[in-house]
Amino acid sequence: MNHLGFKIDKMKIGSFDFTCCEGCQLQLANKESTLPNFLGLLDIRNFREISSERHDDYDIALIEGSITRSDEIERLKAIRAQASVLVAFGSCACFGGVNSLKNRIPAEEVIKGVYGDKPIETMPSTKISDIVTVDFMIPGCPVSKDEVERVVIGIVTRSLNTLPKYPVCVDCKQRLNTCLFDLGEVCLGPVTKAGCDAVCPSGKTPCLGCRGPADDINFPSFLQLVKEKGLSEDEMLEKLTFYNGFADYLDHES
Amino acid sequence: MKVDFNIDIHHLPRVEGHGNIHISVKDGKLADARWEVIETPRFFEMMLKGISAERAPFLTSRICGICSISHSLASIRALERAMEIEPPKAAKAIRLLAMHGETLQSHALHLFFLAAPDFLDMPSAIPILHSHPEIVKAGLLLKELGNEMSIATTGRATHPVSLVLGGVSKAPSKQRLKELKEMIMKRRTALDRSTDFFRTLTIPEFVRETEFISLRNGKDYPFIGGDLVSTDGIVRDENDYLKMTNEYLCDFSTSKFTRLSRQSSAAGALARFNNNSRLLGHRAHEIAASFGLEPICHNPFMNNIAQLVECHHIFENAETLIDLLLDDDLKEIRTAYKPKAGAATGAVEAPRGILYHHMETDDDGKVVKADCIIPTTQNNANIHYDLKALAAEAVKEGKTDRETEKLCVMLVRSYDPCISCSVH
């Protein structure tokens, strides 16, 4: 394979799932029209969901899911020890994700509510970077395959690109959508990192912040905006806590 | 000759989620066979507590990365029934088209990328891309069509954007619907090529009689709502889902097991077929007959063929739905509602089988209690007892450990298990 006349190597990749729905890994198999070319960039060494061949000589590890059990910590550390580049893949890996909603309730109550008296091990949902060093984050619930392609091409051609710094509103305006605030909804577009092509507001549903905060957001101003529009603060909080991406900002406010 | 061997497969590959197979043979006899689900639980029922009805379907769709539309629609159906909301006709058609997209995508993923490599003795579909490129390409065309149907109807292939309480937040444009219809017509050849390919494969012969559970409404092949029925003659109302599932805990699995009239029961494409085969479209009927698939089929490996038959049904029915939507002005797509207290069950046929969500709301429309019973949860006991029967049969026939292992992993994959879903 050549790029600008230079020979480039395929990326030796491993894809691993922890506590999650596996929807982010599934995106790797989507966008079928470019899939054979995309796969041509990869040397898949370990990807349990699609292949029974398993090797431990990968350079890049994609990590999907959050951590909720002690055996997952050990497995994650072993992967970190092998991988040169470790990518937190999706909102669960990046922020703890929707799994973090159970953290609001005491663990004993959570276990009893589902398993009764059966002993089950679980701990509060934890993002990957709380356990190991993360080299790159691709947030999203699920991740966008377009963005994954951009990142993979960047790594393979040694020209790693960064994620957008600006909020979802920028993309949303370019798609000429009616602002959901004007339709009386709390939308997290003004504070959430772009890169999803504003898929939710384009479908007339408010952004729930799955990509976490954009760079240098004005959070107090966002809170003020919701207040000024007379919109529900409860609704805003439900959205800001949905993927746990705004935990640092909410801690700071309280 | 008396043989001893153990088969221990940790984190079975090419299935969704984490499960182990353990088989032990001593003195030429099966000593133990177990299907262990070791997935980490996420506790969705607890996460749902206090979440607004409006947001609940967006949370439950995250139970599964493959069948997120089914989860969203099961919650929506439960909450709409609990709060007495009637969605407009066009929204119902859009939702059903979304289900078709998801089912097609899921079946294509399973048939070509998870199941087919076993039949061709390959570790994954990637080498098949080189050995049988036309087959993998046909599979990709079907999977892409399924995803395109989901994107057109819900905004995205995984984790739907526009499925909301009361209907849908956005309808596909007429132009998009016309393109979709054209795409369906053009991809019939890919479906036929796939069907011919599956005809060349040898489906293992294995029968263990069981009870098949699915939805039935008597009018259409079922996808959203209806009576809960079993091949042992049980018929119950949708809200009586607990009497249909009888969940119990089992000490070697983080997934619960279920049962009805027998030790175990099965859900999925084969269960839908066994209860509703006469409601399939004309072409799907012919295809089933050509594979010798007849109700009541008790060979779990035939679930693969039942999925293929359903792909044909979806091709036929999706066209009808698109025509219906093209005749509608698509102006009425969302019913306004006021949140209120209530309780109800929503049952849908997810790709892997009947899925129940039960929701209770308070006066403000917040979820106070939720229960989700997943198709694979209902299949786990059947997989477990099938494994015992299949391994015992294989050992009796003098099969080697490698032959036994191959049959056993193929058996589990035939159920297309969605393990992280089953634990949720």
Any overview of this molecule?
The complex is a heterodimer of chains A (254) and B (424). With 254 residues, chain A is of the alpha/beta class. Chain A has two domains: 155 residues, Rossmann fold, CATH 3.40.50; 86 residues, no CATH class. Chain A has eleven helices and seven strands. Chain A is globular. In chain B, helix 7 packs antiparallel against helix 12 and helix 10 crosses helix 12. In chain B, 60% of the residues are buried. At the A-B interface, helix 1, helix 2, helix 5, helix 8 and helix 10 of A face helix 1, helix 4, helix 5 and helix 6 of B.
List the SSEs and their pairings.
The complex is a heterodimer of chains A (254) and B (424).
Chain A (H helix, E strand, L loop, with lengths): L1 E2 L2 E2 L3 E7 L5 H6 L6 H6 L1 E6 L12 E5 L5 H13 L2 E5 L1 H5 L11 H9 L20 E3 L6 H12 L11 H7 L24 H4 L16 H10 L4 H8 L6 H7 L1
Parallel strand pairs in A: 3-4, 3-5, 5-6, 6-7
Antiparallel strand pairs in A: 1-2
Chain B lengths: L4 E5 L9 E8 L2 E9 L6 H4 L8 H5 L7 H15 L6 H31 L5 H7 L1 H22 L8 E2 L2 E2 L5 H13 L1 H12 L11 E6 L10 E4 L4 E2 L4 H5 L19 E2 L2 H8 L5 H9 L12 H24 L15 E9 L2 E9 L5 E7 L1 H22 L4 H14 L4 H5 L1
Helix pairs in contact in B: 3-4, 4-6, 4-12, 4-14, 5-6, 6-7, 6-8, 7-12, 8-12, 10-12, 11-12, 13-14
